[in-house]
């Protein structure tokens, strides 16, 4: 293979879409499956997902949420029970019509989401206030047929995600839960994935079809498009009524329960690739990197080897004792230069180079992936790598915030908006609250209301579109 | 609810099948989904699965196996590519024929197993000997339509499992891998689930349709029926040829690779329930118990509470510092007696009772779930709980081995076999090796060859059925 086959051959600026696809394939995160719209995760991609799920699992558990399993097949009749919700998904549903040679009477849907199934079960499990709150989460895959082109992690007909479903005795408790979850989402994405998000509400038009309201976190990608990073819905009693999720309160009176549902998907990995990657390949934030440090020993002969390898082992042990995920690349048939490129492509946050000369100088060379800076570190200071990783994590979030700010605008003139939206970006603009204006803006510019940030209430301004009194200042953008 | 609604109402001996179902439902491990053949896992059931998967994940990782993700949809044309394998699954396959309102040309199968899909990908990923061995594992669900009655964990149309798929440069290495995996399976099931297994080969008739040979581990259930606990297949080049899984060796000559596949499922949970459960409910081996110790504080008034609760907290902290999974049941509205029954039903290995009198005596009451023995333990000896849990684990395996031995017979007379098989059990009997005898025995008695134990070679005996020279002494039994 030539170098071109291995490395990224287009720049992020030049051809963002091709650059993204090359990173996914060449860093061996994922590959296309034989069926259009479907992808396979290779070990380096799946490891990132495993780290992410384990982080969420801890936070969910601390919030009293427990995991369960729901089957993937939902009878059509059940899916139709909440009709608005059904209409929203209908065209994307995969239908099972046969098992073996037998036709199935009531067609079975492959789960596009599990509200209807979960709440059928919940209505059996919940009898009294003692059974509440019921807070469950499901790590599974959802299926929604994608007609547009496949984009690994971003647009696939099957995607890995978690869907949480909670039930509460009071509206207040359910609404609090919606916000608690959104907070878990936000701090995980910002602190672990180093991606800044803006949280707020979706508009009526953009909310989850079965919800009373939807809260969301949105991020801006380097190409100026918005990506929905996760949503947390207040379902009110929209499902508890048709599905009879009822409980007897302490006074023995029956009430319909209050519910929430919420989810994030492997789309977060897609966002991470887009935000942090560069022309050399993937750049992983340390906290989510399956390998945080790679050590590349450098030597030409047995003499060098005998000097270098024992030190490499020593360093590996020190790092492991600090709970750093470290890998030693001792592949004999490859040159150090090849290995450097390889690990840069794979985005490992820190590379340690160590050869006979370093042994003499009693130090190693440290190469940081995110800014490609090299420095040296004395043998006695190896433990500082922990601090270096922390610093990288913080610096990456800072850089991402700066990038996002550059692409964010406050605007009130519709003509200015129309000219600027061509280049992408987040536009905070006053809005009257009417779906009509929202739809016209979408029609004329391709931009949606992505999020109405919390606290962006009445502004005494005029709607960017109709010039009537505005009620909020949403963020408009074109989306993925 | 009356006591009958809550507790198990039939004895294990009396009605084994009903007893099993009651445990699953009443211990809240699982419940029936709306579609026949499908079940839902509740948190207490799913936690056991999570513990089990984390144990396997560590062992797989130590063996150089990494996890990945495969989509659930496989095109019919791909599934047909290995024809024998296809015929074996055909009647159980769920077929997706529509997405939204559109008919799909090449029907899509819901994964009954992923050999065909995995190896299509592998053939793209593997070019040279440097890419080998490739060892991947996939935690997912498989779907095979069940026509017989649903039995949670044992007979369901969708089941959670892992499927491992490895590729090797040589036959020897692949065959070694088959055995390494079987060994991981065996020691996990025996040491963590406290279930004794017998390992060996499947007969030609009973092997995985796509394999050269299948190794298996089998256990005997308390009702005398055999349960297949896991299989590890040597695929030879049966798939590498049609799927073109080829590699250029060091001499640059292309070879077809050698492959293995292997799997265990949530069926292991079903076996654990059957083997260890009793008339009070579930009995969990400590190593696989999501909660290993439950502490029930006992007091009637505030004075008692003030005495008891601080000590409970102290004990909880000691146990947690020993990495014991502990839960304090401080539900106010329930009596201690109710709680005792509840935790016995749920199978928690050790219960600690502590009331004002125990505080005076400076000791707690320890109730072991598996033999329902009570003893007392001084406050200064709390750390011994670790040892007690270890002892329980060992004792449970010992008891299970004794049970299995009682139901195991060595036999050579077919008439004796026919009369004894009615009551169930494992029957070691000489066999000539001919499929014809195997089939006749199955027809006349309902018993299969479950496993040909390793090392059970030529015995100089006569085949139990045809009286010709035997070539091995398989275990015959009726199975699940």
From TrEMBL, chains A, B:
GO annotation, cellular component aspect: aminoacyl-tRNA synthetase multienzyme complex; cytoplasm
Coiled-coil regions listed in the entry: none
GO biological process terms on file: prolyl-tRNA aminoacylation
Keyword Aminoacyl-tRNA synthetase: yes
InterPro entries in alphabetical order: aa-tRNA-synt_IIb, aa-tRNA-synth_II, aa-tRNA-synth_II/BPL/LPL, Anticodon-bd, Anticodon-bd_dom_sf, Pro-tRNA-ligase_IIa, Pro-tRNA-ligase_IIa_arc-type, Pro-tRNA_ligase_II_C
Domain notes: Consists of three domains: the N-terminal catalytic domain, the anticodon-binding domain and the C-terminal extension.
Family per similarity comment: Belongs to the class-II aminoacyl-tRNA synthetase family. ProS type 3 subfamily.
Name of the protein this chain belongs to: Proline--tRNA ligase
């Amino acid at each position: 293979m030539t170098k071109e086959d291995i490395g990224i051959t287009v720049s992020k600026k030049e051809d963002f879409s091709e650059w993204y696809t090359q990173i996914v394939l060449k860093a061996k995160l994922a590959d296309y499956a034989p069926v259009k719209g479907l992808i396979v995760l290779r070990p380096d991609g799946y490891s990132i997902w495993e780290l992410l799920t384990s982080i969420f699992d801890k936070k969910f558990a601390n919030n009293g949420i427990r995991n369960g399993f729901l089957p993937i097949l939902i009878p059509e009749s059940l899916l139709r029970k909440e009709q608005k919700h059904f209409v929203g998904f209908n065209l994307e549903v995969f239908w099972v019509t046969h098992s073996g040679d037998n036709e199935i009477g009531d067609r079975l849907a492959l789960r596009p989401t599990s509200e209807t199934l979960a709440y059928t079960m919940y209505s059996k499990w919940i009898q009294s206030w003692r059974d509440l709150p019921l807070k469950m989460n499901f790590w599974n895959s959802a299926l929604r047929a994608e007609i547009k082109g496949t984009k690994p992690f971003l647009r696939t007909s099957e995607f890995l995600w978690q869907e949480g479903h909670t039930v509460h005795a009071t509206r207040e408790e359910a609404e609090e839960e919606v916000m608690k979850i959104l907070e878990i989402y936000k701090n995980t994405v910002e602190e672990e994935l180093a991606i800044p998000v803006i949280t707020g509400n979706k508009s009526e038009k953009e909310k989850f079809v079965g919800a009373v309201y939807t809260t969301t976190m949105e991020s801006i990608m380097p190409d100026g498009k918005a990506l929905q990073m996760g949503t947390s819905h207040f379902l009110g009693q929209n499902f508890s009524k048709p599905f009879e999720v009822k409980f007897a309160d302490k006074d023995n009176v029956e009430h319909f329960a209050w519910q929430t549902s919420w989810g994030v998907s492997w789309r977060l990995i897609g966002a991470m690739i887009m935000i942090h990657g560069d022309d050399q390949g993937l750049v992983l934030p340390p906290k989510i990197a399956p390998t945080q440090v790679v050590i590349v020993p450098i030597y030409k002969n047995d003499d060098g080897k005998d000097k270098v390898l024992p030190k490499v082992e020593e360093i590996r042990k020190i790092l492991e004792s600090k709970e750093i995920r470290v890998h030693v690349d001792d592949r004999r048939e490859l040159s150090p230069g090849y290995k450097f490129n390889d690990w840069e492509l794979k985005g490992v946050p820190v590379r340690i180079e160590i050869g006979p000369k370093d042994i003499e100088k009693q130090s190693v060379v440290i190469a940081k992936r995110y800014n490609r800076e090299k420095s040296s570190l004395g043998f006695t200071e190896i433990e500082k790598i922990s601090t270096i990783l922390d610093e990288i994590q913080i610096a990456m979030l800072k850089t991402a915030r700066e990038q996002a700010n550059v692409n964010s605008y406050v605007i009130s003139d519709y003509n200015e908006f129309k000219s600027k939206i061509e280049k992408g970006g987040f536009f905070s603009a006053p809005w009257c609250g009417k779906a009509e204006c929202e739809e016209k803006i979408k029609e004329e510019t391709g931009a949606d209301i992505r999020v109405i940030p919390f606290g962006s209430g009445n502004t005494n301004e005029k709607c960017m579109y109709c010039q009537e009194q505005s009620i909020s200042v949403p963020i408009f953008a074109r989306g993925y």
